[in-house]
Design a protein that fits this description.
alpha/beta; seven-stranded parallel sheet; three-stranded antiparallel sheet; 15 strands
């Protein structure tokens, strides 16, 4: 396979899956490991991808956001492990806020606590929460089709009626300099408000969100506890642990 053809295939796989492992790229292109590594270096230098531990990730514009369906299909095992750990932090009788998102949705099967109350802006979360028999409040607002999240001024005014023991949020980017970010300023404001109304805030994010920056800042790293999987290298994890309380779960 010629180099331009190989590069095109690599970029197509990344666009489709978001993150692709090195071994898969080797197999799909029928190339050696050294060849693929050189390809990834070249494409990263051209700002067409980002090399990550064990593979590569697609580079999005910082205001672009994958659809809810696209995000649901990615890193399922990691999200489930993160969610299970997060559920163990919840106590009977807690009132919690669940952010609209695919990782927070994975929390729902583990919500077997007595006397639990859930508030959410995630339309997709409502049915599985109700199936658990949990007292549930859906805030008002405008529905954002791509993320199935309720946002806007009515969402904010509705959200401010509540107070939470714990708040669980998803993010699109985690960066040492820019903190936690998401593409949409209105969603960022909803997340910030929920944080301010909670005694404790937890960010649920798999390792692919690290070293990513989206358009709108949610908060600095020091403001919350981050729950992630064990997909980072030791050096990457160490650099972040200096700035944020991180709980790492094994997948």
């Amino acid at each position: 396979m010629l180099t331009p053809e190989r590069h095109q295939l690599i970029l197509s796989l990344l666009k489709e899956h978001g993150v692709v492992k090195l071994q898969e790229l080797i197999e799909r292109t029928n190339s050696s490991e050294s060849t693929i590594r050189r390809d990834l270096v070249q494409l990263e230098n051209e700002n067409k991808l980002r090399r990550v531990h064990g593979g590569a990730a697609f580079v999005h514009g910082n205001q672009l956001e994958p659809s809810y369906i696209e995000k649901t299909a990615k890193n399922i095992k990691e999200k489930q492990a993160i969610a299970k750990y997060a559920s163990e932090l919840i106590q009977d009788g807690d009132s919690i806020y669940l952010d609209a998102g695919t990782t927070t949705q994975e929390l729902i099967p583990y919500l077997d606590h007595k006397g639990l109350t859930v508030v959410t802006n995630g339309v997709n979360l409502i049915e599985p929460i109700l199936e658990k028999g949990i007292t549930t409040y859906l805030i008002g607002g405008v529905l954002k089709p791509s993320t199935k999240a309720l946002i806007g001024s009515r969402a904010l005014s509705s959200l401010n009626l509540y107070r939470f023991d714990k708040c669980f949020l998803g993010v699109n980017g985690i960066d040492l300099k820019y903190g936690f970010t998401t593409p949409d300023p209105e969603e960022a404001l909803i997340k910030q408000t929920a944080m301010s109304l909670a005694k404790e805030t937890y960010i649920l994010a798999d390792h692919t969100k690290f070293n990513e920056v989206s358009f709108s800042k949610i908060s600095s790293l020091k403001d919350v506890t981050l729950i992630t999987d064990n997909g980072l290298t030791k050096s990457e994890l160490s650099s972040y642990q200096e700035h944020i309380n991180i709980k790492v779960v094994t997948t």
